[in-house]
Amino acid sequence: MGFIRFLQQNTLPIKRSGIALAAAALIAGCSEQLETQQAVPPKAIKYFSVGEESSGSVRKVTGIVEPSDKTDLSFRVDGKVSNVLVKQGDLVSKDQVLAELDPKDYRTSLSSAQAQLNQARAEQQNSSSELKRNQQLFAKKLVAQATIDKLQAAADAANSQVKVAEDRVQEANRNLERTKLRAPFAGTINTRTLEPFQSVQSGNTVFQLQGDTGFKIKVPAAESMMPYIEYGQLVSSDFPAVPGLSLEGQVSSIGSQVEAGSSFPVKVQLSGDTSNIRAGMTANVTFSFRAENQETPIYMIPVSALSESNVNKDDNRFAGVLLFNPETSLLEKREIELGDLRDNSVEVIKGLNKGDKIASAGLPFLFAGQEVTLWEPEWRQEQ
User: Which of 40, 86, 121, 363 is 20 to 30 A from 256, alpha carbon to alpha carbon?
Assistant: First the structure.
């Protein structure tokens, strides 16, 4: 993610400030010999109030441009081949079905998931109706508060079960669709390694598709991205060597084996005018993912709330922030899990709640356990 490098480039030098502070301390020491020692008032700090939520997820990954010649294709699910629709040397069009797996088991899974969803919705409706009926009785003082609390808990549990069941239906639908292997772009079938009635495993190459023209970009996708990347997914790309050029592309290949570190190879087929593109160029590919059924909110905080010393050197997905405790007026160190870097803000996946107040400036002079006050601008104090 480059948080440490970003912080190194954007952290102001503090050497002069340190000299100034040392001089101030010396003067203060002299004053203490002449005057009665007075208590140092709590430091007023600039802070950021957590509240802005991230809409979906954006990941930018750097890759290398390659000639658009060969792409390995594989199923995303296991199964037995029921139909092979192309042979070696065939010309295929974009989205053309190349082969199919027997969908019987996946249809059964979808039917089962749908039945569970229907049952969950029925229980949700019953719980809601029972709660409303007893709330009316409670208003007439005919039932106890404990009864209402119990029914509310049951209604909440029913709502959660519906959400879980909906997720299962969506996953079952995706798996059923994945029994059909489609061409991500137009080209020629270079190799074919499967036959009808053959059992295949997800990720095993079954076709090699050769593109007619153009370029592709090979990028290393983090393990956390893999569940959300799909064949044909639209992405955008830019090229440092060609300022101002931005091209759309589609995911054409998804690797099944780890390469460098814990990343998986993903290839993107470029579209549009590629006349200024050359093989070997560096490219930045941006993936955008929707936040479907996101259970926990992801918040945005300014990068200034992070300091280089508080970023985990071994895994820069984790860092520490200084959280203000309103009950004690003390700063507390809170470990957070970081997401994507967006301009001067960064996503926080875990560790903070809406309304939390964190120090956002002067971090080199702040520490956990320090008593502080929250600095408010004059316009806010007058309200």
Answer: 86
